[in-house]
Amino acid sequence: MTARWCTPLPGGVRLSVQVAPNAKKTEVAGIVDDALKIRLHAQPIEGRANDVLVRYLAHVLDVPRSTVTITHGLSSKRKTVAVVSAGLDAGTVAQRLLAELK
User: Fold this and answer.
1) Cα-based angle 60, 47, 72 (whole degrees, multiple of 5)
2) What digits encode the pLDDT tens for the residues 78-89?
3) pTM for the complete prediction?
4) In the chain, what is the straight-line distance between the N-terminal and C-terminal CA atoms, in Å?
């Protein structure tokens, strides 16, 4: 069974993410209202926080940044992110992200 915030897509996964910009460091902070909460060490100005989110997810999931796309919520704290990468399933993604939980 996969987490409700991490669902399968054809060729990848869809993540429901709630971001908290202006944090001391970028990290997974927990699960909030069926979304993965991620603190971002960036201000929500000129797309900086979105860029940090994409880079962080690509790093943790060990995929190219080009495979991580914010599909909804570019100007919102609540975002939907698609990760399209062969061989990546929802269970693996959830496990890698939860392993980052501090």
Assistant:
1) 75
2) 999 999 988 899
3) 0.94
4) 23
